[in-house]
Amino acid sequence: MFVKINVASFLIALFVVLTEGRNVIERFDEDYEDSIGTKWAVLVAGSKEWYNYRHQANLCHAYQLLKKGGLKDEHIIVFMYDDIANNPENPRPGVIINNPHGHDVYKGVPKDYTGKDCNAQNFYSVILGNKSALTGGSGKVVNSGPNDYIFIYYTDHGAPGLVGMPEDPPVYAIDLNEVLKKKHASRTYKKMVFYLEACDSGSMFADLLDEGLNIYATTSSKPDEDGWATYCYFTGDTSCYGECPPKDFKDNCLGDLFSVSWLENRYIHKRVLNNGTHGSHMMQYGDLHINKDALSIYMGSNSPKHTSSANNNNASNSRHVNQRDVQLLYLISKFQNAPEGSRRKNEAYRKLSEVISEREHVDKSVKHIGQILFGVENGQKVLNIVRQPLVDDWHCLKSFVKIFESHCGSLTSYGKKHIRGFANMCNAGIQRDQMDAAAKQTCGYMSCLSITEKRRFKR
Ligand SMILES: *[C@@H]1O[C@H](CO)[C@@H](O)[C@H](O)[C@H]1NC(C)=O
Ligand SMILES: *[C@@H]1O[C@H](CO)[C@@H](O)[C@H](O)[C@H]1NC(C)=O
Ligand SMILES: *[C@@H]1O[C@H](CO)[C@@H](O)[C@H](O)[C@H]1NC(C)=O
C-alpha cells in the first residue's frame, strides 16, 4: 500500500499510526483507496406499466441514496422506462415514493435511457463504455479507469436465466456474464458490486460468474425462488402487505422486499428471508471477499449500514406479494372497483380475462410441447429439472424461445417462468426441427394469425 503513497502522505500515515493506533490507519487506507478511484453506478429498472410502479420506485430511491452519498450525476447512469411519475393513474403526479412514509424520490433522477432506449443492448454498451454501440439515450457510459469502483443495481421481473427489460429481448444470463468478463479484460475497474432483485435472480450468476473478476454479486433469491413485492394494498383485501402504503395509493406496491431492505438500512438478510414465508434467500456470487469492503467505497458516504448478523432473533413474518401475482391483483381490484354496468367495468373485465387466458395459454402450450417431446408421463418431470447453470447451449435456449413465440405468441413476463422448461429441452438434446414441429402441433393453426386475432379467436 505505502509504495503507492507519496512521502508526505506516508509521514501523515506514520503520524496517525503513532498517535492514534491501528484503526485509524486502516481507515486512512480505506479513504485513500477510496479517493483515487471514481465511483460509478448503473441503475436499471427493467419494467414498464403502472402495476410495476415499485421497480422504478426502487431505482429512484437508489439514485437518491448514491447522489446524497456524493456520487456525481455524470457517473450515475439510469435505465428506466419513465412511465410512472407522469402516469395518468398516479395519485401524486410527478412524484414517486418507495416507502409508506417516504418522500418523493423521482426529483432529479437523470433520464439517461428511457422508453425504448432502456434496453439490453444499451445496458451492455454502457457497462463496456462503448459509446459507438449505443442507440439513443443520453450517451452516458461507464467510462471508467483501472482504479474505479462500479456499482450495478438491477430491479425487475426475472425468470430462470434471464431478467426482463421493458421490451424484449431480455437480459440473458450468458450475455451479462460475457459482458462482465469483457469489462474485466479491458482493465477498466478495480472492483465491482452488483445487486440484483428479481424472481430466480440467483440463476443470473450461479455457475456463470467466475471468481477472479473482482466482482461481487448479491441476488434477492436463489436460482429457483420467487421474489417478493411489499408495501402493497389491494382493495377487497383485509390487510396490507408489509406496511400499508398511504391512503391515496391503492391496488399497487411501493417497493420490493430485497430493494427496500438494502435501501432502508435494515437487517437485510433476515428481512428478505421473512422467516421463510413470503420471503427469499439472498445469495452471493463471485469474489466473496469483496463483501468485507465498506459499502461506502461503492455507494458513497450515505451508504446503508447493513448487518447480516445471523444471531439476532428478529424473525419478522409479514405478508408480501409474489412478484408474479401483482398484475393479477391489480386487475382484479380494478374490476371490483369499477361501478356495476359501467364501461370501465367491462373494460376491466376484458383485460382481466385476457391476462388470465394468456397465462393459461402459455402454461398449457409449454406443458403440451413437453408431452409431445418426452411423453405424457415424463413431460412435466423433464421440464422441471433444476440444474446450474440452467443450460449448456444458450443459443439453443434463445432459439427455442423464438420458435415458441413464432407459433404460440409472446411468452409474456409471466410466461418466462417456463424458460427452465425450454432449457431442459435443449439439455435433453432436442433439435430445432423437433421443437418447431412440437410448437406448431401445439399452437398450430393460430401461428399465421396476429396476436390480436388470436385473442379474438380464443374468446
Ligand atoms: C463497440 O461496439 C461496436 C458496435 O457494436 C463494435 O464494432 C466495437 O468493436 C465495439 N468496441 C469495443 C471496444 O468493444
Ligand atoms: C430488532 O428490531 C428492533 C425493532 O425493529 C430493532 O430496534 C432492533 O435493533 C433489532 N435487533 C436486532 C438484533 O436485530
Ligand atoms: C418462524 O418460523 C418458525 C418455524 O416455521 C415458527 O415456529 C415461528 O413461529 C416463526 N416466527 C414468526 C415470528 O412467525
Automatic annotation (TrEMBL):
It catalyses: Hydrolysis of proteins and small molecule substrates at -Asn-|-Xaa- bonds. Transmembrane segments: none annotated. Residues 351-443 form the Legumain prodomain domain. The active site is at H157, C199. Keywords: Hydrolase, Protease, Signal, Thiol protease. It comes from the Eukaryota. The keyword Methyltransferase does not apply. Its EC number is 3.4.22.34. Belongs to the peptidase C13 family. This is legumain. It comes from Solanum lycopersicum (Tomato). The lineage of its organism: Eukaryota, Viridiplantae, Streptophyta, Embryophyta, Tracheophyta.
